[in-house]
Design goal:
- The N and C termini lie close together (10 Å).
- A hairpin with a 4-residue loop joins strand 3 and strand 4.
- With 325 residues, the protein is α/β, with parallel strands linked by helices.
Length: 325
């Protein structure tokens, strides 16, 4: 059985899947890189995925999932600095007027990635990894792929570049330009714009990687479903600018839910054996922002993850048993 892990995008809410994975590592006594054949992640899920397959100097996993969870809590403010969050109202209006472009300077996020991945490349990954991005010049999807990196050096990018390109959310961070040949290059933004839940992409890639495999197990981790509702009477009054943000939110969650539906159909239980798991929490309205790295919000996200683990204890135990068989 080929075992696939997929992690959704969601900014600072990546803390939630990091904590669920920490629990899986604790129960199995194995690192994620040893439990899965392929690890995929979009946006913040890509950051987490790369961190879990990054080697240390002895070619062992450099980080446990709990350590990466702590990085969200300790370094989230470097990706989304408090000084910029405090000015968010001003920044949003400056963006609308075209005076500034992106909400957060690239240097803050890139510094985190330089510390996290050092000089490791895609080909160094301890398990196969898949990270979606989008090329805005070519108007095409692009997948960072460790298997492809091993086969062709021009696609063997530094992990820090992959992490940034795959999580450069439009309006938050600048695109990244990557050279791939003498006269060719990529201009990439966050793959979450089209594959915020990359689980189906991961299954398709796994089928290509392992053409003789008889069965597949997919574990898909979300970064939280919204609980805030939008009422009809309010929606009737929305202006175009109101709808712009709402449509992005609707498409992100809608795509994720669609992938969940599709995988449930493609990988039904067989003889009581689950082949597809989808773990996701219900967010409180105050915890839905992707860039709220305040201690209060991080504490709330950790509490939501811990509550989910408690309420799904038996399901997680069953999954861990399957992963170690």
């Amino acid at each position: 059985m080929i075992k696939i892990l997929s992690i959704d995008g969601g900014g600072i809410k990546g803390l939630i899947p990091a904590l669920i994975l920490a629990e899986i590592e604790k129960r199995t006594q194995k690192p994620v890189a040893d439990l899965f054949d392929l690890v995929a992640g979009a946006s913040t899920g890509g950051i987490l995925a790369l961190g879990l397959v990054t080697p240390d100097e002895n070619n062992n996993p450099a980080y446990k999932a709990e350590e990466i969870a702590r990085l969200y809590e300790l370094k989230g403010q470097f990706a989304f600095p408090k000084a910029f969050r405090a000015l968010s109202f001003v920044l949003k209006n400056l963006q609308k007027l075209g005076i500034i472009s992106e909400k957060y300077p690239k240097k803050f996020l890139y510094k985190v990635f330089e510390d996290l991945y050092n000089s490791n490349k895609l080909s160094d990954a301890l398990a196969e990894v898949l990270i979606p991005a989008y090329d805005i010049e070519k108007r095409k999807v692009f997948f960072f792929n460790s298997k492809k990196a091993k086969e062709n050096p021009i696609y063997d990018f530094l992990m820090k570049d992959v992490a940034y390109a795959g999580s450069a959310a439009p309006t938050y961070f600048d695109p990244l330009k990557l050279n791939i040949a003498d006269s060719d290059y990529l201009v990439l933004v966050d793959g979450g714009v089209y594959a915020n839940n990359p689980a189906l992409c991961a299954l398709a890639e796994a089928k290509k990687m392992y053409p003789d495999a008889k069965d597949f197990l997919v574990i898909s981790l979300g970064t939280g479903n919204p609980s805030k509702t939008w009422l009809y009477e309010d929606a009737k009054k929305w202006k175009r600018s109101d709808w712009t943000r709402k449509v992005l939110d609707i498409s992100g969650h809608g795509v994720a839910d669609t992938v969940d539906y599709q995988l449930g159909c493609l990988l039904p239980d067989i003889n009581g054996q689950k082949r597809y798991y989808r773990f996701n929490v219900i967010l409180n309205p105050n915890n839905e922002a992707i860039d709220n790295a305040s201690p209060q919000n991080l504490g709330a996200l950790r509490a939501l993850a811990e509550q989910f683990i408690y309420e799904n204890d038996e399901t997680i135990n069953n999954l861990c048993k399957t992963l170690t068989e």
